[in-house]
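Deliverable D4.2, example record:
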Amino acid sequence: METNSSIATARHPAHPALVPDPCAIDAGPRKAGQRPYQQVAQRVIDLALQLAIGAGQRLPSERELATALGVSRATLRQALTSLEMGGIVEVRSCSGVYLCAALQSALPVPQDVPGPFELLSARRLLEPELAAMAARVATDSSIDAILAAADEMERLQREAPDDTAGGELADRHFHLTLARATGNGALAGMLEHLWGQRGGLWPTLAQLFQTAELRQETLADYRRIGCAVAVRDPAAARSAMRAHLERYTRTLSRK
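Output generated by the structure prediction step:
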């Protein structure tokens, strides 16, 4: 979200009125059903109003906002992404976050689905065990399907690297193929449900970090997972899937 922050900070000095908020995000009451990043999005709007930031002007840097609001960079990043989806702010590479319109009537984008980091947390509990189970019980044809799914991801990266929608479908296909290889429809259904909860915020946030290098790392992760399942090594399959999801979480959370 904040690319080349040192350059951006040098070009745009810190807002003098910006001071740390002594109250963390969870200190006050939260509206029913409101998630942390939604609450932070509203607080970003409130802060912009307090600082009298007008349309076309730059907000404080991501680091300054996180410090002032007393929240993590990961939660702030989700909040800014939701505001960008609603047309309230614009994130400019190597420059910062800019206000798009007057804020008096602006509201954060409603999101009734779990945030990206909630979903990743749930997947880190579930998918390593699915991978280990697949290594124990997958049929030969199921293993062939897992390896073919990784092959399809590689083909897309080679022939259509800018096909975001195709890459998302290939990513989903790999994970669900692995889950179905366990032969347990209930567990596969749980993962499919989690995938269906991703909503609009997930791809918007993820696309900010998509690079050729990261796509290659994802493919390498899939190869390691597939190979561990193919040689029927549950421990290696579990470890490879856990490493993949932890790496992805770090990527979305990076400073």
